[in-house]
Write a structure and sequence with these properties.
Length: about 650
């Protein structure tokens, strides 16, 4: 969302009845805080010994205090100090809360966990109790009270900031920024914090009302503002001594606190209702030692040469209630320079998770292991993150499935592309933006100079996808990983995106790893195809022989489930019966056996390895389809299945 759109949303808050009333009331309080000391400051300070502790009268609307000073004017003048102290304490609490909440994203893992634990402990204590505790530590007075209330508010804001930041950190545009080599602090300031600003602002408005009440309470107890200064809490304490004789001196500051606090709270609540802001409870995953290594599924050697990407026995595991779950189990493949490799399979087969793992985007509590994970001659799992940042930021490009979520919604497209050049090519801000415009022009985005200054929501789906490819071309990519780049695009735009990838590959000798559900798209675009099922590669074959030389029953079933112009429309569409196994309930033996018409007892007992055949063809099956057998029949199902 752009700054203009954000402003329009806050304007919508002001147009609601509650929001308008709260806004006008708060505006009146602010004007009073500015003007009251200028207009009535002298009258509030005049000591009149002839009018000591008078009752309300025409001359003194709320009476006078023990020195004959007019209480009405003192309540008006106290607005400035009361409001200023409440806002200052809120700013301290919000700032410190954001720092503590964002710390786990910047600090090393153990230090981040320590900060999170301290915040969790602090949140368990009531805010007013913490304020009293800190007030005793910092001492009596205005400064001590401001610090006490600010520190007491910080844990709640830290918890909120931590929860919101964790939600944004999982977005594709954050992953793209990490691949681009953006540092942790810049990632936090440029990409995460701007996207959690609205809920923090809403909660800050509500928190200001609470801070006003807390500060009045401390001053009432004698721990806050000290003479000769005064705020509403101090005036309330002075008026309470005479409440049995005349309630006006005590009621006036009490009403001022209630009205102002109500204005803050109503403004925050109406903003929350209009903006749809809600606070989520953080989820802390179980932390256990890495799972014991399972026996490796042996695979024959990969093609000779120096691959741009080499993966051997890649495993990705996640902790769960009943132990570790491994959705990617022993994946091995390589990608040569200039080669296009397609990865196909049903949802949940591990395609995207494999791509994220080789891009180092799978974070704890997940556990990634591999006998070899090498990109451009660098072993990724053994090289410090600081050294990898420049390599991955310039030589590896990711094109995600949803281009809308892949861009930061609060930054213009051109600035997001330029960030790569600023980080890794040391270009000035203007030169980096000019290069971004040039890259948008290279991927055929119309009017690139204008489009570079627009926000992602102003782009169509096809243009966003082209802009994502343009972001990858800001460096000199040796490998482009395209994860479902044509999903939700119409056929014409799909073809344009695929043609653009092919042109980039031909012009730069860039390797491409294309992940897709569409077998037809992969067959037309790639040189080689990897077929994944249940977290493993079950077949690796040249794309030219996909329809004639596929030997795994699962590959044959995928092909049969894709309709074409010759499909008999009078018959139900072919589907693969049953469903893929859940990663935490992986069967013994071949994972495809429960759905395979060729499976026998041996298949259900022993998992086949990926065995190399002629012409670089590899298949993991005990009973592969022979070429002379033709297409593998696929059973039809009226109860549903996965095509």
């Amino acid at each position: 969302m752009s700054a203009r759109r954000s402003s329009s949303r806050w304007a919508a808050v002001a147009r609601t009845p509650v929001g308008a009333c709260a806004g006008l009331l708060l505006l009146a309080v602010v004007l009073l805080a500015v003007l009251a000391p200028l207009l009535w400051g002298d009258r509030a300070s005049v000591v009149d010994t002839d009018a000591i502790q008078q009752a309300p009268s025409h001359a003194h609307l709320l009476g006078t205090d023990s020195l004959g000073r007019d209480i009405f004017y003192r309540v008006l003048v106290a607005t400035r100090l009361s409001l200023l102290l409440a806002v200052t304490a809120t700013l301290i609490g919000v700032t410190l809360g954001i720092v503590l909440g964002a710390a786990p994203s910047v600090l090393p893992r153990r230090a981040g966990r320590l900060v999170t634990s301290l915040v969790n402990i602090a949140v368990a204590f009531p805010g007013l109790l913490l304020a009293l505790f800190f007030a005793v530590i910092f001492g009596v007075g205005t400064t001590g009270a401001v610090l006490a209330i600010g520190l007491a508010m910080a844990p709640a804001f830290a918890r909120l900031a931590q929860t919101l930041a964790a939600g944004v950190a999982g977005k594709d545009f954050v992953a793209a920024a990490r691949v681009a080599g953006v540092g942790r602090m810049r990632l936090l300031v440029r990409h995460i914090l701007p996207n959690i600003g609205e809920p923090l602002a809403v909660n800050a408005a509500i928190g200001a009302g609470s801070a006003l009440l807390a500060f009045a309470g401390l001053s009432f107890l004698g721990l806050g503002v000290q003479a000769p200064d005064y705020d509403w809490g101090r005036l309330l304490g002075e008026g309470l001594d005479r409440i049995s004789l005349t309630p006006a001196p005590a009621m006036a500051p009490c009403v001022a606190v209630i009205v102002t606090g109500l204005a803050f709270n109503l403004l925050g609540e109406s903003a929350a209702a209009v903006l749809g802001v809600r606070t989520l409870s953080p989820r802390i995953g179980p932390r256990r030692p890495p799972p014991p290594s399972e026996p490796e599924v042996m695979a024959d050697a990969q093609p000779a040469g120096d691959p741009v990407l080499a993966v051997e026995n890649l495993r990705v595991s996640f902790p769960g209630p009943s132990g570790w779950t491994t959705p990617v189990r022993g994946v091995s493949f390589s990608v040569q320079p200039g080669e296009a490799v397609g990865v196909v399979g049903e949802s949940g087969s591990g395609k995207s998770l494999t791509a994220l793992a080789v891009s180092l985007l799978v974070e704890p509590p997940a556990h990634v292991t591999a006998d070899r994970l090498e990109f451009a001659g660098t072993r990724l799992l053994e090289t410090p993150e600081r050294e990898l940042r420049g390599l991955l930021g310039t030589s590896l490009s990711l094109v995600f499935q949803d281009p809308m979520s892949s861009f930061n919604p609060v930054r213009s497209v051109g600035r997001q592309l330029a960030e790569v050049a600023e980080q890794h090519q040391q270009l000035t801000r203007r030169a980096a933006f000019a290069r971004a415009v040039d890259r948008l022009r290279a991927v055929r985005v119309p009017a690139p100079q204008l489009r570079a200054r627009q926000y992602p929501y102003e782009f169509s789906g096809g243009m966003r996808q082209r802009a994502m490819i343009g972001m990858g071309l800001m460096g000199d990519p040796r490998l482009i990983i395209a994860d479902e780049p044509t999903t939700a695009l119409d056929a014409a735009v799909q073809w344009q995106v695929l043609q653009l990838l092919a042109e980039v590959r031909a012009a730069r000798d860039t390797a491409i790893l294309l992940i897709s559900h569409d077998v037809g798209v992969v067959a037309r675009t790639c040189d080689r195809i990897l077929v994944m099922y249940a977290g493993r590669i079950v077949e690796d074959l040249p794309a030219a022989g996909l329809h004639t030389a596929a030997r795994h029953p699962y590959t044959r079933a995928l092909l049969a489930a894709v309709p074409d112009l010759d499909t008999d429309r009078s018959r139900p569409l072919a589907v693969i019966p049953g469903r893929p196994p859940e990663p935490e309930r992986m069967p013994v033996g071949c994972a495809f056996a429960p759905r395979c018409p060729r499976a026998d007892d041996h298949c259900r007992r022993t998992d086949p390895g990926l065995v190399a055949e002629r012409d670089g063809h590899r298949v993991a099956c005990w009973h592969p389809v022979q070429e002379q057998e033709g297409a593998e029949p696929v059973r039809e199902s009226t109860t549903g299945g996965t095509a």
